[in-house]
TrEMBL record:
NCBIfam families: nadA, PRK09375.2-4, PRK09375.2-5. PANTHER family: QUINOLINATE SYNTHASE, CHLOROPLASTIC (PTHR30573:SF0), QUINOLINATE SYNTHETASE A (PTHR30573). It is found in: Cytoplasm. Keywords: 4Fe-4S, Cytoplasm, Iron, Iron-sulfur, Metal-binding, Pyridine nucleotide biosynthesis, Transferase. [4Fe-4S] cluster binds at residues 89, 218, 308. This is Quinolinate synthase.
Amino acid sequence: SNEELHDRIRVAKQVLGDRVVVLGHFYQRDEVVQHADFLGDSFQLANAAQTVPNAEAIVFCGVHFMAETADILARPGQSVILPNLAAGCSMADMADIDSVEEAWEQLTAIYGTEPDETGRVPIIPVTYMNSSAALKGFCGRNGGIVCTSSNAATVLEWAFERGQRVLFFPDQHLGRNTAKAMGVPLEQMPMWNPNKPLGGNEVAEIEDARVILWHGFCSVHRRFSVAQVEKARAEYPGVRVIVHPECPMPVVDAADEAGSTDYIRKAIAAATEPTTFAIGTEINMVNRLAAEFPQHTIFCLDPVVCPCSTMYRIHPGYLAWVLEELVAGRVVNQITVPDDVAEPARVALERMLAARP
Ligand code: 13P
Ligand code: SF4
């Protein structure tokens, strides 16, 4: 039964004590969240992975790219465990290293590599945290940086100080929403089409570009629509609509605010008057917020449940299993990033960690 599982997890954690730290992303289901020593958005969890004191093992209740990041940032000898290896992210899979290298080759052939009179290089690669370690390594090797949804604007500013333009991958929506909010015109944000030579773009379009967007998207967040925002406003006059920046641009434009999971949480926590919130993000998190803040009315914009199916793959049964294996002295489901990838990826991640949300 579930209670039995929870007891097993509690007992194993008690035996392990400080030797293990369980990190959980806000999108995890409640049965997992209740066992997390630290809960956060992807920036906070990367930061936590770097700063957990002496734990021998970090059990990461989240998705694969987060566990890879934790392994890159963890101390030597610390092992990072992903309770279910099938917990990936479909968006992260939308940019592979070969396609990005190929795009980079074509773009640098157009722009060259010479800095302008102010010392800015022609192009800087920026990868969203939701990407493989190989892409973070690519950014580290090519003067680039990683961003999360909470520090994307700060990171783009960092990039524009050093470069005339940016190649942003894999999430077109986060790239577009962030750059638009910074005043970059839409016509200067062409989308790269990896299936055609030169991305299928006109050379002129590419020459004028300030942000070249990859074609990736989040299958959870792209479901949100302007119609849902309008319906919420019609049904609940005065409603505050807050969405995640992985939502398509028209949805972000129709909302009152957009921000990372932690931003959404803090916005609700800071509301002093009873308020109605319509939220555009993953359902497990929205339901938890609704339970945590009963003085407010909080609901998900999408009436049909929209969980992140891969986050959901972290079942408490897997958590119990990996913890009990640790008790028995065995490390299972370890995520290890090879040194030749981890070293440049760490460079790009440390630049990001310095760019506070
Ligand atoms: P944040 O935790 O940065 O808000 O990201 C949400 C997400 O999609 C993680 O996969
Ligand atoms: Fe990936 Fe979207 Fe799930 Fe985040 S919510 S892990 S971006 S599929």
